[in-house]
Specification:
- Helix 1 crosses helix 2 (71-81).
- The chain is rod-shaped, with a radius of gyration of 26 Å.
- The protein has helices at residues 11-63, 71-81, 149-156; strands spanning 87-95, 98-110, 120-132, 138-142.
- By secondary structure, the protein is of the alpha+beta class.
Amino acid sequence: MAAGQPGRTAPWAKALGAVILALLATIVAAYIIGTAREAERKRSAFEATQGDARRFADALSKNVAGQPIDRHDAQQALEDAVAKGHGLLFAVAPTEDGTRLVVQLERTYQRSMPLFGPADATADRCFTIDFGNSAQRSNITAHGPDDSCIEIARKAR
């Protein structure tokens, strides 16, 4: 029976279909694995911002021990504790028992498949840091990745 008759598929068409299906499965598997790895790198970047916030709070505690915290001291401690350009000071506000600071910290991480954009992405996170009057203890609150530092700073004032 000839391959051109209805109801039959030519062997070369079956082989081509198998090759295309295998290629598609490979692309889907690579995408799934790449997405999982990118999510892990992003999570690690967010965790690193937590360490940056702790270093910033510790540096500020050393610099202003026993003094009220002003914006200049906070900005200087931020520049000392975090790489240049990776931290923004949004607010320094007095509270009834000390000072509240709102700071945004960022870390970069590698994207998995940068076909239509840059290979690096940033993970931004906003933190509220409360210092007591002695500036020896600090309470760090890490906000979610979707929380706006501008809104948090407005509430802090």
